Amino acid sequence: MTTLQLEPLHPFAAEASGIDLSQPLSPAQVREVEAAMDRHAVLVFRGQPLTEDQQIAFARNFGPLDMGLHKVKTGPRRFRHAELADISNVKVDGELADRAHAKIVSNLANQLWHSDSSFQRPRAKYSMLSAVVVPAEGGDTEYADLRMAYDALPAWRRQQLEQRVAVHYALHSRFLLGDTEYTEAQRRAIEPAHWPLVQTDPRSGRRILFVGAHACEVLGMTVPEGRMLLMDLLEHATQREFVYRHRWQVGDLVMWDNTATLHRGRHYDFAQRRELRRATTEEVTTSVEAQALELAA
To answer: Are strands 141-145 and 261-265 parallel, antiparallel or unpaired?
Structure first.
């Protein structure tokens, strides 16, 4: 019996209802969510506030959990579960962070178009972001469909990109913002990952233009030429017709596919409290990863 209902919000995003995310999911419900993700890539669940434990339990239905930049930045955390990313402007002691604090740098880096953990192997598959406190104005999140972006490429560009591989580095987006205070050990904690610019989703069969703020060069091209290509492709992929903008409400959970979309947070007043927490799953090794390793060899 179908339990998941979907209401389109955009050609690639949908509002999902009919499943209580705070309760254990049945295998059939997990398959329904995965099938909906294959079609839409972004699902919005309204009015589903979750505890930390409930969010972790929901995320575990979809694969092993990703630690992301926790491998680089260690130290005290606000959450019991290290697998939960703290997407907030709140310090460990519960007070708002000042503008020079590392949490604010993280917020600013999140305003660049990116795919979570594209800088590692395995990369991230699904991210699940839960809204706990939202500001009065701003702080929306935008999502761009990389499948629609590929479909809109002219034939000459598609041909140019075939067999091209981009290098994704964990700290590249931070360096862009002047956040360079890392030890040599931190800089090397996550080796750069190589991903084809054009990929085929192993589940849906759709072609994907895989770019984002972690991509720092293109193999076989000079750094300047490669970066210009990456900037051109990012500009193309984030045109308004490919973008869904989510306006947060407390209790929202948004789930998205990092291998098929980019996302970015939008500006808000850092003097206002904003608290979201994210659980992310790792992608199961696929033919895309095998192709990346082969092309980069």
So the answer is: antiparallel
> DSSP 3-state helix, strand, coil percentages of the chain (rounded to 5)?
30, 25, 45
- In this structure, are strands 141-145 and 124-133 parallel, antiparallel, or unpaired? unpaired
Residues 102 and 153: their CA atoms lie apart, in Å, by 38
Q: What is the pLDDT of residues 44-88, one digit of tens each?
A: 999 999 999 999 999 999 999 998 665 555 667 889 899 999 999
> Under DSSP, is residue 128 helix (H, G, I), strand (E, B) or coil?
strand
In 3D space, the residue among 173, 105, 110, 119 whose CA is nearest the CA of residue 142 turns out to be: 110
Question: Which residues are 65's β-sheet partners?
Answer: 281
Q: Work out whether strand 124-133 and strand 165-168 pair parallel, antiparallel, or are unpaired.
A: unpaired
* pTM above threshold 0.85: yes
For residue 133, give both structure tokens: 């406190």
Q: What are phi and psi of 282, to 5 degrees?
A: -85, 145
Q: Which domains does the chain have, with CATH numbers?
A: 5-296 (3.60.130.10)
- Residue 163 φ/ψ region, left for φ over 0, alpha for ψ in the -120 to 50 degree band, beta for the rest: left
